[in-house]
Every structure is written in structure tokens, then in C-alpha cells.
Fold each of these.
Amino acid sequence: MQEFITRIFFPILNPLFEPMNVWLASFFMPWARIVTLAFFIGTMIWVGIILKKDYVNLDAPSRTFCHDLRLWTVVSMLPHLFVYLYF
């Protein structure tokens, strides 16, 4: 199956992604991890603390904490954060 997918998609995707891969390979890997984690944590802080509750929950069915989209945005981003921390 992997050979089939490689045979089909590699000629299409390689010209698009190879220049990016070469460029990104020149960066020191811990810096890439730090920048990525900073983006995730910064977004979580922005959504969870900075954005106004009334703006985020404009059409929420109720005002309880379980309908607060800020909470669920932060919760849904945590697995991504853990993956970047682990790998």
C-alpha cells in the first residue's frame, strides 16, 4: 500500500514540498520546537484569557462553563501541545 501511495503522490507533492524541506532542515531543531510550542501556548493564552467571553460565545446556547468555547479551544489544543513536547 505504501508503494502505491508513493508512486501516485510523490511525483505530485515532491516538487512542492522539497524546497520547504531543504529550507526547514537548515534550522536547529530545538528552535523549531520552541517556536511551535510558543505559537500553541500563545494561541491558548489569546483565546483563553485575552478574547472577551461575549465575543467568543456570541451564539452559545447558555452561559454555563461547559458551553464556553474558550475552554474547549484550550482543551482541544492540549493534545497537540503534548505531542510536540513528547516528540
Amino acid sequence: MSVGLQGLSCVVILGGGFRELRGLSYKKSTGRIVAVRKRRSKSPRSEMAEDSEGVSQELKTVVTNEFGTFMEYTSLKRTTSFVPPFQSRLNKISKWLVSGATCVVIVWKHNEHALWAGIGAALSGALGKVLKRLINGKRPDSASGRKEDPGMPSSHAQGFMYLSTYASLALLTGYDWSLWTMASACGLILMGAYLSWLRVADGLHTIPQILVGGAVGSTFACFWMWCWQGIIKQGLEVYPTSRYFLLMAAAFAATGYVIFSMRKWRFDQY
């Protein structure tokens, strides 16, 4: 048998058929020549595909362990903002703009009514924080990683609508109902509504959250204006020295507002 194989090999080699036998192997147990199936080498493209599948699986595992629910990796890269960059930036600094405008009005007017409005703004903000803890409504998924506190009601929408509603009522009660006065009052309301809408467009709140926040802020503004017109204003006329108590209350409210609210504000936060 071995002699026959050697002769066959010589014939094939001499005939240029050596390539035909590269895939053959002699098996002693059976005494036969069998073909050996070689394992194909992987192409670079197939190796890259396997590597990408492995990375994708690892990312799915990490996301599942981190957030508790399955999320595709592409969803992490998805943009959650639906507003242009300018409006997104405006949404970030809106709290500074509104607070700065309130301080400017208080310093510019420097009267009892301006102090009373500032006290109402601080109390409205405190009321919003309390309602958030009581309701404990979850923010939308698009706000994950940016804002982790409860979202119902929206404290930003509440603050915007309180200030815009109170300023509108102050215009309507302090000036004649001219076309300019009516247009200014409507413009203030629209500005507060627009800033509130940016919270939804930027993925930080849901529509019900800003609606509830805006309703609470506007209602509190109406109540606070009624207190001024019906009680505080007349009390200051009868007891002029009571304005010092109003001044101390305003200083206390401003201090509490700075300590409990503005200490958490940064330019890179929403």
C-alpha cells in the first residue's frame, strides 16, 4: 500500500498535480485517502462585523445594568432637544434673565408694591418646591441625566407665569386701559407662555407639567394682587410704620430665596 501511494505521489508531482493532493490525507485506521476540509480564514470585513456585534452586545448589557431597562445604543445618541441652539441657550439662562429683571424692577421702583411682588415670587417658588415633593411626578425620559428632581409641576413655568401675570395685573390696575397697556399686558403673558414652552421643547418637562405649573403661578399671582389691593395697600395707608415690617419680610424672603434656590443654579445647568 505504501509503495502504491509513493508511486501515485510521484506521478502526480511529475504531472504538475501537486495542488490536487494538498487537501488529501492518508488515514491509517481505515487505509483510505480522505479529503481534509480546511477552515477558511476570516476576511477583515467579517472580523469587523463580529467585533461590532460584540461591542453592541456589551453596550446593551451596560445600558441594561445601568438604567434597569433595555435601550438601544442609538437611542442614547438621539438628540432630545427640538429647538434651535439659540432657543436652547435661552432656556438655560431664562432663570437668570427673569430673576435679573425682577431685581431691576424692585431697585427701579423701590416702593412697597415692588417689595410685595418680590415676596410673592419667593413664596410662589417655595410653594412649587413643596408641590413637587408632594406630587413627585416623574420628568420625561429625555430629561434623564440633566434634571433628576420631580417635574410636576414645572417650577420654571410657575415662576414665569407668576411674574408675567402679576406684571400684567400691575399694568392694568395702575394705568389706563389704553391700547398700549393692553398690548403690553398680553405681550407679558405670551412671553411667560413662550419661556414655559421651551421647557417642553427642550425635553425637560411634559405639557401637563408646564400647564399645571403655569396655572399655579397665575392663580397665585391673582391672589397676591388681590391681597395687595384689598389689604396691604390700605393697611400701609392707615399704619405707615408697617412698611418696615414689609421691608424686613422682603429681606427675609430674598435671603431664603438665595440660600435654597440660587445656590443650586449654574450656567451649565437647566
Amino acid sequence: MAFPQRLVPLSLLLLALTLYSVSPHGIVRRKIYVIRSTGPHGLVLDATNPSLLTVQYFTGFKPQLWTFEPGSKPGFYYIINESQGKVLDYNRPASWNLVLANRDNSLHQQWNLDSTGKITNAALSKNIDIWGATFTPGTQVGLWHDGDYPNQKFALEEKS
């Protein structure tokens, strides 16, 4: 599968992560992104079920669209879903599955995007991981120990 032309590697995005754009008329808008696996099939992070996030083929629907706001910890961001207006979190304390939650300003909801494509949680220092390295639509997404795994590599694709 060929990736769209507007796919931005995290390493380049980190040099100048712009969270907002300004239209020619001076209207400020938050930039919207898709979080796309760099593994086979280019699956994207999907929050159709906000209590259990998965990867899916890209549809363009709002559960697959994300914005970023600076977190309280330098270099970390809140990742906000366009459909729900809630932030990326994990199902604490029950599991490390990714979920959407109301923002509580904790480190559990803040994420670092590094130059290798890993997205790391501020509280646990664990990475977003496609469970079992199964690059199949509908596979659950959670947190796992840091490693050089293809199922922990993502890129942001600007959609706005």
C-alpha cells in the first residue's frame, strides 16, 4: 500500500510541531492528524469504541482524527479525539488498553512523540503498541514495554 503524499515522519514533525494553522483570512484552527502505523497496511488509530481503541483502515471519520495540545510535562502532549473531544488514556488500573477519557491533567494522559515513531506515555514510560504485532483491522491497541518493534512505530498524517 502506498502512503499518501502528506504523511509526515515523526522525526520531521518534531522539528516544528505546529498545532495550529492560520487561514488567509486570519482564522486560527487546530491542525488535525491521523495516527498511522508504519507497519503493513498503514492502519490508523481508531476510537469508534472509546472504551477500547483499535487500528482500522482509514475512513476519514472523526473517530480516526486527532489533535494535540501541549501537556504540563515539557515535550509531552494531550492527544485529543475529534469525535469525542476526550483525550487518549489507558484503562487504569485495570489494564494497559488504550481508551478515551475526560481530561484530568494527569501524566497518564500525556504522550511524547519521538523521532523513531514511538509514542510514549509520560506516567509509565511505555509505548503505544498494536497488540501481538497483528496488523489486522480491529486489533486492539495498548501500552507495552519499549522495544524496536514495528508495531510500536507510527507517523502523523496531517488532515487539515
